[in-house]
Amino acid sequence: MPRYAQLVMGPAGSGKSTYCATLVQHAEAINRSVQVVNLDPAAEHFSYPVMADIRELIQVDDVMEDPSLRFGPNGGLVFCMEYLANNLDWLEENLGHVEDDYILFDCPGQIELYTHLPVMKQLVEQLQQWEFRVCGVFLVDSQFMVETFKFISGVMAALSAMVSLEIPQVNIMTKMDLLSPKAKKEIEKYLDPDMFSMMEDNSASFRSKKFDKLTKAICELIDDYSMVRFLPFDRSDEEGINIVLQNIDFSIQYGEDLEFKEPKELEEDSGNQQEDELFQDSVGS
């Protein structure tokens, strides 16, 4: 049987660790097994149990303090991820070989890892060799996306990751529970955007005559091909969390190999019906 994985990506502060913790709690509530692997070598704390932690292999602080390297925070993180890519046997050992695993990979927030560096692509290819069905989950902060020009930036970041990794991807707006009622209503238009309507509504503040053609071309790319859409994520809304999980499960075909079991009540009703039929047949004979 295959194994399943979510590659949880997004800019720093987009809520990746909170998303993982929320999904673990939700899975426990619905009696489902979900594990988390921390792939952020700069993480300081998180509120979920981990089955593997990259900091046991390498840490950013150690790299930055090494006098022979002299890396800053971003260079140190890239070095750590490249070190992981060269030592994937460590990850394989920690993942084990359990069938039907469902694992969340809590990834770092540096966007260059998903756009022009090959590290995350190498990780995805290795997971696929280990028979994982992988879905990219790209998170953006809904508080950041309430303005059109910021929304375009978020869409392009999500699109870059999608093109680079070449895996199914679900894009999510996080922290919906932190928005005011007015902002929640305003952000609905960004979940399934009509780019040209947005351009007209924000023509004064959004569009520059110098870059008008470029802005129009970007909006046409997003609008014509419908490549990027967003799902809202409110960690206090169980139904919304379930909808997000169903979309991800569908993209990696989770549950297709599981045997269907009728609810217990239906099984009992079916059994009673069979007994009644046997009784009637015996009476008739």
What do these coordinates show?
With 285 residues, the protein is α/β, with parallel strands linked by helices. The chain has a 7-stranded parallel beta sheet, with helices on both faces. Helix content is 51%, strand content 13%. The model is unreliable at 260-267 (pLDDT under 50). It is globular.
Overall body shape: globular
**What structural category do the secondary elements indicate?**
alpha/beta
Question: How would you sum up the major sheet?
Answer: 7 strands, parallel
Residue share in helices?
40-55%
How many angstroms separate the termini? 49 Å
- Percent strand: 5-15%
Question: Quaternary arrangement of the chains shown?
Answer: single chain
Describe the strand arrangement of the main beta sheet, using strand numbers: 3-2-4-1-5-6-7
Number of separate strands: 7
**Unreliable segments (pLDDT under 50, ≥5 consecutive)?**
260-267
Number of helices: 13
The arrangement of helices and strands along the chain is EHEEHHHEHHEHEHHHHEHH
Question: Whole-number radius of gyration?
Answer: 23 Å
Overall mean confidence score, pLDDT: 84
Please specify the SSE layout and strand pairing.
Blueprint: E1 3-9, H1 16-29, E2 35-38, E3 52-53, H2 60-65, H3 73-85, H4 88-95, E4 102-106, H5 112-115, H6 119-129, E5 132-141, H7 148-165, E6 169-174, H8 181-191, H9 195-201, H10 203-206, H11 212-225, E7 230-232, H12 238-251, H13 264-284
Parallel strand pairs: 1-4, 1-5, 2-3, 2-4, 5-6, 6-7
Quick structural summary:
By secondary structure, the protein is an alpha/beta fold. The chain has 13 helices and seven strands.
